[in-house]
């Protein structure tokens, strides 16, 4: 298959794509072919005669790279190189080449290596621009884990992020997001399906090439979305928690960062509330250009006095009718009868706020379409969450 739903950048060498818009043939300064499994994981690449096998675990983490022996362009024999990755907390902390001394990886908050050390050898520094251009020439990272832990492909100079290839020069993926445009009404960044982490690479990473990692990306948008009962009336934020918010923008702890776009979002929210104030960024906080204020909102922790109980008639006929014929926000399937799932789930709203806004609960804007399979899976997850919260609050 030739190029479809893809964009061109400095990688005009990519000549052919498969049905899922993954490059299969590269020609030019380097020649290569690629093979993928059913989960879009690249399992084999052949570049300039050298065969490389990649192995990922169920969580999508790189665990092994096997570079087979070959003869290079200068007729020199290059031995086999096998690299095992050791991870902790979802981040690579070391790599072991050919079962020799471990090379320890010191990574930043996004998983990008900032320094490596092997035995008594000097520490090697690694630096990247926000969108991932390597500032230090380190041949050890060729075809190995680099920017946000992903492989830097030697044939294309692209970062292979599993479901898609990413061009750090353009700050864009080469193909569209395979995940449907869920929450596009809440996050305008999702309308550009080539964009990388909502154009906020300082705060976000994409571990699979499909969606921004939860907890890193779009902190402010997610916080506001989950906090506001109604996006058209920010004043409800104050009413929801039962008391005014004394400050939006407490000093952020060192190591966190704030983008200019996030600052503007919080500034707009502050203006809407009227009784909130903006704080300054702390001295150890990394701030993007033109961003001088933090985004942490001080919201009182709710007091939970009884376990969650789903309100009666939580889903209305109008809500059920509103989701029919629309694709499931998880995988895009349109079932004969779609289900209306609350976003955020009511049980999460209750344990994060201490109450449920019943007016919003029955609004068609409060639900998204789910197919029965995804709805049942979501129900199982929320049931487990509810049980965990009951234990945490001592209701069991």
Automatic annotation (TrEMBL):
UniProt entry keywords in alphabetical sequence: Repeat
Protein name: RHS repeat-associated protein
PANTHER family the record matches: PROTEIN RHSA-RELATED, PTHR32305
Pfam families: TEN_YD-shell (PF25023)
InterPro entries, per database record: Rhs_assc_core, T6SS_VgrG/RHS, TEN-like_YD-shell
This protein's record includes keyword Repeat: yes
Coiled-coil intervals, chain numbering: none
UniProt domain Teneurin-like YD-shell: residue ranges: 98-202
């Amino acid at each position: 298959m030739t190029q479809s739903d893809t964009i061109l950048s400095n990688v005009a060498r990519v000549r052919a794509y498969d049905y899922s818009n993954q490059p299969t043939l590269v020609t030019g300064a380097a020649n290569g072919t690629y093979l993928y499994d059913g989960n879009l994981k690249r399992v084999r690449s052949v570049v300039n005669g050298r065969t490389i096998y990649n192995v990922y675990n169920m969580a999508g983490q790189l665990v092994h790279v096997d570079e087979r022996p070959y003869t290079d362009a200068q007729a020199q024999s290059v031995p086999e190189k096998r690299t095992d990755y050791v991870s902790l907390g979802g981040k690579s902390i070391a790599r072991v080449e050919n079962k020799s001394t471990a090379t320890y990886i010191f990574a930043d908050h996004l998983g990008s290596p900032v320094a490596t050390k092997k035995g008594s050898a000097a520490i090697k520094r690694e630096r990247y621009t926000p969108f991932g251009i390597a500032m230090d020439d380190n041949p050890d990272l060729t075809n190995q884990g680099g920017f946000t832990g992903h492989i830097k492909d030697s044939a294309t100079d692209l970062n292979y992020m599993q479901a898609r290839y990413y061009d750090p020069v353009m700050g864009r993926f080469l193909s569209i997001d395979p995940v449907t445009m869920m929450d596009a009404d809440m996050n305008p960044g999702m309308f550009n399906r080539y964009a990388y982490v909502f154009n906020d690479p300082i705060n976000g990473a994409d571990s699979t090439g499909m969606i921004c990692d939860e907890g890193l990306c779009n902190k402010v948008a997610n916080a506001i979305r989950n906090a506001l009962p109604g996006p058209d009336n920010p004043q409800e934020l104050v009413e929801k928690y039962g008391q005014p918010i004394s400050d939006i923008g407490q000093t952020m702890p060192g190591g966190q960062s704030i983008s200019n776009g996030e600052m503007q979002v919080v500034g707009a929210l502050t203006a809407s509330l009227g009784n909130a104030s903006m704080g300054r960024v702390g001295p150890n906080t990394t701030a993007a250009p033109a961003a001088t204020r933090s985004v942490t909102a001080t919201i009182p922790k709710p007091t939970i006095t009884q376990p969650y109980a789903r309100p009666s008639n939580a889903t209305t006929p109008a809500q059920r009718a509103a989701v029919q014929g629309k694709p499931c926000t998880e995988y895009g399937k349109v079932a004969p009868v779609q289900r209306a799932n609350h976003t955020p789930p009511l049980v999460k709203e209750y344990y994060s706020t201490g109450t449920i806004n019943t007016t919003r609960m029955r609004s068609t804007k409060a639900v998204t379409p789910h197919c029965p399979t995804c709805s049942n899976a979501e129900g199982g997850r929320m049931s487990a969450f509810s049980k965990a919260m009951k234990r945490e609050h001592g209701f069991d």
